[in-house]
Amino acid sequence: MIGFLIALISGALMSIQGVFNTQVTKTSGIWVANAFVQLTAFLVCMGVWLCTDRSSFASLWKVEPRYMLLGGVIGAGITYTVIKSMDMLGPARAVMLIVIAQLIVAYAIELLGIFGVEKQPLELRKVLGMAVAITGIVIFKWK
Questions:
Q1: Are residues 103 and 76 in the same domain?
Q2: Inter-CA distances, 56 with 45, 49, 68, 96, Å
C-alpha cells in the first residue's frame, strides 16, 4: 500500500513540476530552466545525503553495466521533453501522453527482460489495460 501511495505522490509531483518548469522557461529559456532544475535537485539530494545515509560516492564506480549511470543525462532529457510537451499540448494532454508512453515502455522492458529486469510473460489483461488507457486519451482529446 505504501508503494501505491508513493507512486501517486510521484505522479502528482511530476505534473506540478512540469507546470512550474514550463512557466520558468517563459522568462529564462528552456536550457536555463533545465539547468536550474537539475542544480536545485542536486542541492536537495546533497542536503538529504548529508543528513541521512552518507554512503560513499566511490560505490558508483562499482555499478555494472556502466550505462546505468546515465540516469542524470536521461533526467535532463525528461525535463526538456516535459517542458516542451506541456507548453505545446497543455498539462493534462501532455501528462496523459507521458503516462501512456511510460506504461508502454515499462511493459516492453518487462516483456523483453532488458536492463536487468526479470522477464515477464505477455498478459492479455495488461495489453487490454493499455488499450483502455489509449482509448481514454483519444476520448479526452476528442473535440
A1: no
A2: 14, 10, 17, 38
pTM for the whole thing? 0.85
Cell numbers at residue 129, please?
489495460
Residue 11, C-alpha cell as written in the block? 505522479
Q: Which domain holds residue 19?
A: 1-87
* Residues 51, 118: Cα–Cα separation, whole Å: 34
Asked whether the beta carbons of 132 and 141 are under 8 A apart, the reply is no
Separation CA 72–CA 80 (nearest Å)? 12
Distances (CA, A) of 98 to 18, 32, 66, 94, 109: 11, 23, 27, 6, 16
Residues 61 and 26 in one domain: yes
Q: Is the pLDDT of residue 141 over 80?
A: no
